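Notebook entry, structure prediction.
Reason for the run: the old model in the group folder had no record of what sequence produced it. Starting over properly, with the input documented here first.
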Amino acid sequence: MEIEDTFAEAFAMTATRVVVTAATPEWVRIAAWSATGYGTSVIACDAEAGIECELSPQETPDGRPGAALLFFAFNREALQKAVDSGVGHIILPRGTYRLSRTVTVDLSKTGYVCLDGGGVARLLMTGAGPALRFVGTHQGTAAPHTVQEVVWKQERMPRVEGLEITGTHPQADGLAVTGTMQMIISHVLIRQCRHGIHLLQRNRNVIIASSHIYHNKGIGIFLDHVNLHQINISASHISYCDEGGIVCRGGEIRNLQISGCDLESNQGKNSPPTANVLIEGGANAEVAISGCTIQHNHEARGSANIRIRGLSERVVPKTDERREGHITITGNVLSDVMVNVHLDHVRGAVITGNTFWTAYEHNLLIEDSSYIIVGENNFDRNPRYWREEREDTANAIVLRRCSECILKGFVISATRACTAAVTLEQCHRCQVQGLSIVDCDGIGLLLRGVTRSRISDCLIRDDRPHANSISIQAQGGKENMIIDNYLGRPAQIDNTEGMIERNWMIREQK
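New structure, fully documented this time:
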């Protein structure tokens, strides 16, 4: 045979080999012919297909007669074509679908859309940008009279479910969402991307549920300068995202609910300080964080489990108050970071029913805030966790420049490597009531420059052998009531602090 060097064509193509089996060779041939059909050319056809060979029962996975089929295709726009076709419910069979650019779902053109991978389909994003971008036209609020008819007729409740999205490009994202009404993202896995889910501009009534946002270089769920009221994030694992787990930055967020999630180690060791849940800038308020395990990574500088900076960018008429709030943090397990909960310029928050441990600097750090209620929480150092609860693990509680706050009914034990277990600095009109502060180094309760506050009914004891701690130290304050406390160690209270009565304490031995 002689090959003449004249002309040849070559195309970049994707090949797939599929083995089909059946009960008899005849049914194998029928299946093979039906599958390959007239796919003899990519001209006017999405694929070239053919029968490679027949297979004996000894050559097939299930021991039945079979055939090997070959499929070749170079059209990587098939998913975009399916979206644009308006079919609506797009089911992706088992397999990996390579994307080199974003698939855009323009809801005003496509109508209702559900992308359904059934848990067996994977999108491999090899280019920059999101694998999937959902674009709607909703510019109203959640109030029914603000929703245009086109939204109800074509755009409402777009869904993504049962898909894995994996990124191979440094700027690859999972999903980007803007202008939607009632977006639902469920049962997805997004990994090795930059940002997992990126919410932008304006959306309403978003649900993200039962998903894994795992090991991404940027942020897991990023509310990026978005105007968004009513978002529920539930029953999901959001872990190992280097720049934060759930991050609200700028914009206007209202009615954010984070419930039943596991948020872990969403702060890279060499990344800028962030948090598993970070809310900052903009005008963001009305947040509930409940029933979550939130923990790791203390090796990241400035790491926090929950960090809320509430100083608003929005000016409201008839007031100079710029602090946002209405925050509830309840029923969570928080551990293994530098700061478990950090509130800065927040007005109105309730922290109750949580378990805190292994905070290398602060269990609570509350600054420039007011109307904060810290209720019945557990701040215990459990000796069974001796590997984590090292001598340099402080576990301290600090309030600075706060007013109208209540600390009531919690227990804190065995703080180390800090000046005091509980510190109030330059605080005003606060109540500290019914605390149990036990076996802590240094000072149990430290009051510096505290005014017009009441400290009562606390048990502050250190019953360790050779203990040399101070129960209460109060300096530089005035007009306070320090009454009815049970102090098992000596106290140092300036006479100018106010009313100091009925405190049972051990006197220092001369």
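Summary: Residues 201 and 226 are 4 Å apart (CA to CA).
The old model has been moved to the deprecated folder.
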